[in-house]
Amino acid sequence: MASASILLSEEQFLCSICLDVFTDPISTSCGHNYCNTCITHYWNTSGVCQCPLCKETFNMRPKFSVNKVLSEMADQFRKSKQQRQTSSTNPEPAEPDEVSCDVCTETKPKALKSCLVCLTSYCDTHLEPHLKLPGLKRHKLIDPVKNLEDILCKKHDRPLELFCKTDHMCICQFCTESDHKLHITVSLKEAYEGKKAELGKTEAEVQQMIQERQVRIQEVRHSVELSKKDADRETADSVQVFTALIRCIERSQAELIDVIEEKQKTTEKQAEGFIKELQQEITELEKRSSELKQLLHTEDHLHLLQNFTSINSPPPTKDWTKVNVHQSSHVGTLRTAVAQLEKTLSQEMEKYLHDAELRRIQQYEVDVTLDPDTAYPKLILSGDGKQVSCGNIHKNLPNNPERFSFYANVFGKQSFSSGRFYYEVWVKGKTGWSLGVARESIGRKRGLTLSPKDGLWTIGLSNGNEYKARAGPDVVLPVREKLQKVGVFVDYEEGLVSFYDVETRVHLYSFTGCTFTEKLYPFFRPCLNNDGKNSAPLIISPVNHTD
């Protein structure tokens, strides 16, 4: 009802008698409407029952009932009118972020429109002339904006309605006839749509940048987590190493104390034996002294003479002037013990450090399998790609670019161009072999040296008893016992290739300061069969992680 009343004109809700909005409106048979009180009073005073507008006369005064629909519409219109009157007399001021009416002098209500011709913003009341007067209706109204002078051309004082694509600026119509006469211009709407599309593209790019940085944040956090795990492992290893060293020191200290105590016990035992002998001799001497005293006091001449010879000589005794207690000498004992402890600690420390280092490196284990497309034609590969040995038959295989045709070499299928990786290989029972890593571009159809110069970082066994790092020149490795299993570790970014004796958990050799610029592949050379003496295979083995 409220919407309907707003769409109708005020005259449709006015009683033609009282000229006010209907109150309890009734409808006559001629179709006209009046307030119930107004038409009743009109008929009572005139004495004639007729319509005040069309003068239709009724023989009898009609009985009317209130037109409920019209009554409700009139009530809604009356309330709306009162609200508009109240709003116009007591308008609410515009909010700080709203455009206010430029005409109102006291309270500045919110503007409904801005006129580009008048350069003025109007509230509901002051906008009315622009909606009714023919001359003002032609003015261009827009949604209210602040600083209307900013949307005018500074040169021609006209609205900025066009966009110059040549100079990338907003212009008025007069500008196209002067400074921008030959320039490419479009409407503000078209320029708006184009720039909006560009902004959308830029916003998408910004979102992409945000996502990339969020991913980077996750990577950084992941790196921190890995670092924390490494730190925890390092702490645990250090506790284990130092605990073992402390036990070793305590054990050495206990052994040193035992040695000192044992020497002291020996000295005490020897001294006790001497004291016992001396006490026995003292007893004998005291007995002889007593006999001599008795003989000295006798008056019997015959008795003294008869016993003189047996009593006059002292009893047999040891010459104690040449007898000394062997005092335990501890000079150098502590120095010897400390020297031995230092040696033991060094050995233990090396043992634990190598063990801890290998356990950390083993965390980077990768699954390596042999690539048959690279295998020298005499090589025999197992079905699972984990074993390789050299046979006597030169197989007729496709001479593809990847295949080695000069030496008994084979690559692993997996390549690495970043990060760290580790794998282990059984070499037990072989008299000759080489393994490590090689760059992708090494020569496969010609002879090459096993050296970093030719793109290979390897160690190997030759002549059945000499282990060497192929560093160009070779470096002989101090291996005491035959190697059973070899671990290979690579840190691409650090330029590091290290080899380990897995069984004894000892570091064998490291290539350091390497520069890697291309893919690296695991490299295997089982060497020739040598009439069956070197028929044992190289076996890629899963890592046995130890606690």
Offer a quick outline of the entry.
This protein has 547 residues and is an alpha+beta fold. The chain is 37% helix and 16% strand. The chain is built from 8 helices and 21 strands.
Keywords, separated by commas or semicolons:
547 residues, Herpes Virus-1, Jelly Rolls, 3 domains, 7-stranded antiparallel sheet, disordered N terminus
Give an overview in words.
- The protein is α+β, with helices and mostly antiparallel strands.
- The chain has 3 domains: 2-89, Zinc/RING finger domain, C3HC4 (zinc finger) (Herpes Virus-1, 2-Layer Sandwich); 201-322; 365-541, SPRY domain (Jelly Rolls, Sandwich), CATH 2.60.120.920.
- The chain has helices at 2-7, 36-46, 68-89, 124-132, 134-137, 188-296, 301-312, 333-361, and strands spanning 25-27, 33-35, 113-115, 120-122, 141-142, 162-164, 169-171, 185-187, 379-381, 387-390, 410-411, 420-426, 433-439, 456-462, 466-469, 475-476, 485-491, 496-501, 506-511, 520-525, 538-541.
- Strands 9-10-21-12-17-18-19 form a 7-stranded antiparallel β-sheet, covered by helices on one side. Strands 11-20-13-14-15-16 form a 6-stranded antiparallel β-sheet, with no helix packed on it. It has a 3-stranded antiparallel β-sheet with strand order 4-3-5.
- A hairpin with a 4-residue loop joins strand 6 and strand 7.
- Helix 6 packs antiparallel against helix 7 (301-312) and helix 6 packs antiparallel against helix 8.
- The longest helix has 109 residues, at 188-296.
- It is elongated, with a radius of gyration of 58 Å.
- It starts with a helix and ends in a 6-residue tail after the last strand.
- The relative contact order is 0.06.
- Mean pLDDT is 87; it is low at 1-7.
